[in-house]
Design brief:
This protein is α/β, with parallel strands linked by helices. The chain has 2 domains: about 160 residues, Rossmann fold (3-Layer(aba) Sandwich), CATH 3.40.50; about 190 residues, Dihydrodipicolinate Reductase, domain 2 (2-Layer Sandwich). It has 10 helices and 17 strands. A 9-stranded mixed beta sheet has the order 16-13-12-11-7-10-9-8-17. It has a 6-stranded parallel beta sheet with strand order 3-2-1-4-5-6, with helices on both faces. Strands 14-15 form a two-stranded antiparallel ribbon. Strand 9 and strand 10 form a beta hairpin. Helix 1 crosses helix 9. The two termini are about 40 Å apart.
């Protein structure tokens, strides 16, 4: 490993990896060395397609097996976008090979599997992180300042989030995210992970005392052994009277909003997962005032916009680039930070409890 460059491999050729192909290229402390697939031909095709749009110099090499990538001496870290049903095996094998790991979410089929992943990473002294990009946006620092200033929101009472997209028929008929073998949590794992993570982040990772989950709709596609969630809602309850709700779905068109309410105002983000295109990311703080003067009832709008200079979509300042920059810096430091694994485990534990609740008609499940 160079003192200045973390050398990366992409283990798998999923669509989301194309975004991170670009992200790694824009990191000054990272270099993409190789892409692995089940065949060298598929890996090379993937490289050729990505190179034609966003080129690396030199071009990454194609590797025809995952095992060969993990045995490579010139790779320090791997990004694993494989389906959830396959992730634990390959994250653990990567850790045992001494490779640091960023993996997509959910990180495992359940919390017990995620714990096995974290144990393997700890035992082999490698860094682990899930691929939640918004965690690396500088906007979160500004949101935290607003939450802590005592006047923008005041005493926290309620968190609400929504994340969905309206999937086309071909998605619902055959995408891996509606396969119970590969992605058993469906929309809850694919989208709800972000809802729950944002809520836990607002709460400084204090766990809810109990949750309630509702499976609103599901689908059993051809080849799927069981139905998978296509629409899900949940409630999380915390000590101190704070509650949170969320909605995630493959059946309603694009939305990715977060709303945090308190005793003095509320904070709204309308693109908390994937920022809208542009040179800045922003959120609104509202402290409306209701004035009664004899027969005049006036609701006064008081909203301020807080913006941070940060581009979306793989720019060197973008959140996904920051993810790989931060991770690479951690690897290059020669130390590991257990925080990233801890919050992945907590997120998975909440999702597990929500599934348990939904299987019992939305009953309250204590954590």
């Amino acid at each position: 490993m160079s003192d200045q460059i973390c050398r990366w491999g992409i283990l798998g050729t999923a669509g989301i990896a194309r975004k991170n192909w670009h992200s790694i290229r824009n990191c000054e402390n990272a270099a993409l060395v190789a892409v692995a697939s089940r065949s060298a031909e598929r890996a090379q095709q993937y490289i050729d397609e990505c190179q034609s749009d966003v080129s690396h110099s030199p071009a990454p090499r194609a590797i025809g097996t995952y095992e060969e990538m993990l045995a490579a001496d010139d790779i320090d870290a791997v990004y694993i976008p494989l389906p959830t049903g396959m992730r634990a095996e390959w994250v653990i094998r990567a850790a045992e090979a001494g490779k640091h790991v960023v993996c997509e979410k959910p990180c495992g089929l359940d919390a017990a599997e995620v714990q096995k992943i974290l144990d393997a990473c700890s035992q082999n002294d490698v860094q682990f992180m899930d691929g939640v990009m918004f965690m690396h946006s500088h906007r979160l620092l500004a949101i935290r300042e607003a939450l802590n200033d005592g006047t923008s929101v005041g005493d926290l009472r309620r968190i609400a989030t929504g994340f969905s997209f309206c999937a086309p028929d071909e998605f619902l008929e055959g995408n891996i995210r509606v396969s119970s073998q590969l992605e058993p949590m469906g929309c809850l794992g694919d989208l709800g992970w972000y809802n729950v993570r944002f809520t836990l982040w607002v709460m400084n990772y204090t766990m809810p005392t109990s949750v309630s989950g509702r499976l609103l709709s599901s689908i059993q596609s051809d080849g799927s052994a069981a139905p998978t969630p296509t629409e899900f809602s949940g409630e999380l309850f915390f000590d101190g009277g704070v509650s949170a709700s969320f909605y995630c779905s493959f059946l309603t068109e694009h939305q990715q909003w977060a709303h945090v309410s308190g005793s003095k105002g509320h904070l709204h983000v309308n693109d908390f997962v994937l920022p809208f295109m542009g040179p800045e990311v922003a959120f609104d703080v509202s402290n409306h005032h209701f004035d009664i003067n004899e027969c005049h009832f006036n609701m006064e709008r008081h909203t301020s916009r807080v913006a941070v200079s940060e581009y979306a979509n793989n720019h060197p300042t973008a959140q996904e680039t920051n993810l790989f920059r931060t991770f690479s810096a951690q690897v290059l430091s020669g130390t590991t930070d257990a925080h990233w694994g801890d919050i992945a485990l907590k997120t998975q534990q909440v999702l597990d409890a929500l599934v348990t609740s939904s299987q019992d008609g939305g009953s309250i499940v204590d954590l």
